């Protein structure tokens, strides 16, 4: 087995892939693919890169406050992704951008993002739920110790974010309780640059990892279920307050509905100070093999 990457190398690889390569066109960028054991391009990667591309065309004083994206096609991990940004509007306080992520001349993701200059206004937020400290929870490597499988190795040692389950993990078997909610703590394994756009892009990247788990838990399904097919369909985010992706964030998920091979999940991220910093919503395809032939 190859030498395990260090936390710093995982961080550097992620930041490098999210920064994108410039082209002769100021509104077009090229991004490389982050390794993922599914053999497909990870949706969170394209989400984070699309946000980064849009942000590169906006005044640096304007930070992302929302995005709405549709995953249109599975990405080809062997081919770089081109990001084409359309400048929809630049007002006194807000800027709007549309980004298309393209492979083989076709969009694999379409996103509209909005950016805002910091402003004063009314302020309230839902309180942070109770949860054990992340340091008290086992790492994914702890949970999957002794499992000799490439996917287990990736989740344990190569994933560029440290995710710790608050609830009973469902990597190998369903949870004992069928509930439509779940929670994880997460952060990058090493400190990130002090660039708000980088942190927002990493938060978008990580937001796609665990959301649909709330659907699986409700129906007694484990990630390792043979024949399970799961994919993000659309994704929305609201960035309420400044947040760092290299400091622990509590990410809670709740699924109000599943039907027609789709599951809907709503998520919230709170920082260690108890501030609500991000809200997410995602609908995904969830297909479980039928029993009985």
Automatic annotation (TrEMBL):
<protein>
    <submittedName>
        <fullName>Acyl-CoA thioesterase</fullName>
    </submittedName>
</protein>
<dbReference type="InterPro" id="IPR025652">
    <property type="entry name" value="TesB_C"/>
</dbReference>
<dbReference type="InterPro" id="IPR049449">
    <property type="entry name" value="TesB_ACOT8-like_N"/>
</dbReference>
<dbReference type="InterPro" id="IPR029069">
    <property type="entry name" value="HotDog_dom_sf"/>
</dbReference>
<dbReference type="InterPro" id="IPR042171">
    <property type="entry name" value="Acyl-CoA_hotdog"/>
</dbReference>
<keyword id="KW-0378">Hydrolase</keyword>
<feature type="domain" description="Acyl-CoA thioesterase-like N-terminal HotDog">
    <location>
        <begin position="37"/>
        <end position="116"/>
    </location>
</feature>
<dbReference type="Pfam" id="PF13622">
    <property type="entry name" value="4HBT_3"/>
</dbReference>
<feature type="domain" description="Acyl-CoA thioesterase 2 C-terminal">
    <location>
        <begin position="181"/>
        <end position="285"/>
    </location>
</feature>
<dbReference type="Pfam" id="PF02551">
    <property type="entry name" value="Acyl_CoA_thio"/>
</dbReference>
<comment type="similarity">
    <text>Belongs to the C/M/P thioester hydrolase family.</text>
</comment>
<dbReference type="InterPro" id="IPR003703">
    <property type="entry name" value="Acyl_CoA_thio"/>
</dbReference>
């Amino acid at each position: 087995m190859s030498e395990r990457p260090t936390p710093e190398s995982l961080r550097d690889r992620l930041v490098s892939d999210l920064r994108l390569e410039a082209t002769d066109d100021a509104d077009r960028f090229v991004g490389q693919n982050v390794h993922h054991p599914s053999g497909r391009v990870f949706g969170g990667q394209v989400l984070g890169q699309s946000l980064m591309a849009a942000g590169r065309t906006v005044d640096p004083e304007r930070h992302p406050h929302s995005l709405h994206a549709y995953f249109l096609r599975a990405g080809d991990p062997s081919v770089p992704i081109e990001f084409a940004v359309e400048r929809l509007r630049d007002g006194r306080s807000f800027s709007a951008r549309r980004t298309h992520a393209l492979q083989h001349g076709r969009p694999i993701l379409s996103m509209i993002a909005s950016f805002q200059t910091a402003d004063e206004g009314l302020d309230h937020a839902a309180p942070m739920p109770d949860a054990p400290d992340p340091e008290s929870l086992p790492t994914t490597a702890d949970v999957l110790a002794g499992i000799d499988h490439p996917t287990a190795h990736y989740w344990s040692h190569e994933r560029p974010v440290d995710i710790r389950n608050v609830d009973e993990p469902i990597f190998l078997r369903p949870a004992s309780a069928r509930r439509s909610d779940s929670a994880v703590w997460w952060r990058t394994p090493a400190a990130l640059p002090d660039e708000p756009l980088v942190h927002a892009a990493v938060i978008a990247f990580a937001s796609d990892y665990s959301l649909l788990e709330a659907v699986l838990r409700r129906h007694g399904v484990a990630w390792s279920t043979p024949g399970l097919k799961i994919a993000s369909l659309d994704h929305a985010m609201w960035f309420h307050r400044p947040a760092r992706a290299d400091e622990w964030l509590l990410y809670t998920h709740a699924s109000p509905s599943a039907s027609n091979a789709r599951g809907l999940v709503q998520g919230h991220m709170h920082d260690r100070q108890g501030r609500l910093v991000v809200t997410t919503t995602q609908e995904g395809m969830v297909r479980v093999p039928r029993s009985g032939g």
